[in-house]
Amino acid sequence: MTAAAWLFPDWPAPCSVHAAVTTRQGPGVSAPPFDRFNLGLRSGDRAEAVVANRSALHEVLGLPSKPRWLHQVHGTVVAELGPLPGEHEPQADAAVSHVPGTVLAILTADCLPVLFCTDDGRQIGAAHAGWKGLAHGVLETTVEQMQVAPQRMMAWLGPCIGQASYEIDAPVREVFVQEDAAASAYFSQTRQGHWLCDLAGLARYRLARMGLTQIYGGGFDTRTDERFYSYRRDGAKSGRFASLVWLEG
Hints:
Low-confidence stretches: none
CATH architecture: 4-Layer Sandwich
CATH superfamily: CNF1/YfiH-like putative cysteine hydrolases
Oligomer: single chain
Helix content: 10-25%
């Protein structure tokens, strides 16, 4: 396994919790422009290539079961999952589990993946937080569904688009600022009606507001880091990379 093909979260998770992030440099078979480790079935790549890549992911990482992929729609629904067989992908943008052997997976290409676990290593969670999901509470809903005091949880912020690369317009900023005026600190105006948005910073702020004190990760920019797929950089040519968290089986 080539180290450059993977990113392993730098968080002090209990030994029963494991996590990894894929890059486009993994052991995949996707052809250009998706070369080569695209894991998104809805990104325009050949389905057989994505299926082969997902199989390689399972094998190379030695996962205890197949990842529980989601049909992500930029919403706030949280699915409670176990290591069930089959190819069903629930329509949700986050998932939680307390069942050993379960592998949760989030697909992104600029949106923010957030991984969670409890300090006793008995529960995990994963959320897909683009600006819509973040603004409407996907992280809060995920934390609430885990039914553990926030002080007993830790979160890791995965690769997403960085503030310097993410210009948004006034309606996006207003969604956050109208809900909480303090969110304005995470926007930097570039020109009339446009701001640079710190997506990871907003997530960190909202998690801390809930009472989480153990928040790790951040510091990525998928648009400038070509290890990762980026919709802002590549448009329809962009594949998807995965952020995974699992409980020992």
